[in-house]
Design goal:
four-stranded parallel beta sheet; alpha/beta; binds iron/sulfur cluster; globular; about 160 residues
């Protein structure tokens, strides 16, 4: 409806089985917003043509901003450089956000694409670092408000 807030939300947070391991998350409040037609979903990695399932990937030697600047690569568990796919997914997600005039972007924490506070450190040893993923970095560079699912639920449920 006119004036309703539009959200762009990671597809895996909206129940779509697009994660590298084919899993997803179902949250009642996100499902309600989908029913209200206030959500568009996107999975940057699937938009880039990566398969489901796929090997997990991490940013090696930098952050999402470094990947955008050509200073770091995204490498999967087999050692394959998937940087170009991650860049393509980020730019496709940016286009969607711009086309739909979204006001808030909610992306899955810890992902090399979608992380907004934390990502894994590139060593596949389950160690997180304070940094953002490639898609988050690109959307923030273009002025979008990108938050994690935890921050989103804090916004929706301020008394929790
Ligand atoms: Fe796709 Fe982002 Fe979810 Fe990973 S975290 S499955 S890239 S939407």
């Amino acid at each position: 409806t006119l004036g309703a807030t539009m959200y762009l939300i990671s597809a895996c947070l909206a129940g779509q089985p697009v994660r590298y391991d084919g899993k997803s998350y179902v949250y009642e409040q996100i499902q309600q917003l989908i029913q209200l037609k206030q959500v568009i979903t996107a999975c940057p990695e699937v938009l880039a043509g990566l398969p489901i399932p796929r090997k997990p990937a991490e940013i090696a030697g930098g952050t999402g901003e470094d990947v955008l600047a050509g200073r770091a690569q995204v490498i999967d568990l087999d050692g394959v450089d998937v940087t170009q796919a991650f860049l393509e997914g980020a730019y496709k997600t940016l286009t969607l956000a711009q086309q739909h005039h979204v006001s808030t972007v909610v992306l899955k924490e810890n992902s090399p694409s979608c992380g907004s506070r934390f990502i894994y450190d590139g060593t596949f040893s389950n160690q997180k670092v304070s940094a953002m993923g490639v898609t988050t970095a690109l959307l923030r560079q273009h002025g979008f408000n990108v938050i994690s699912e935890a921050a989103f639920f804090e916004l929706l449920n301020p008394s929790d």
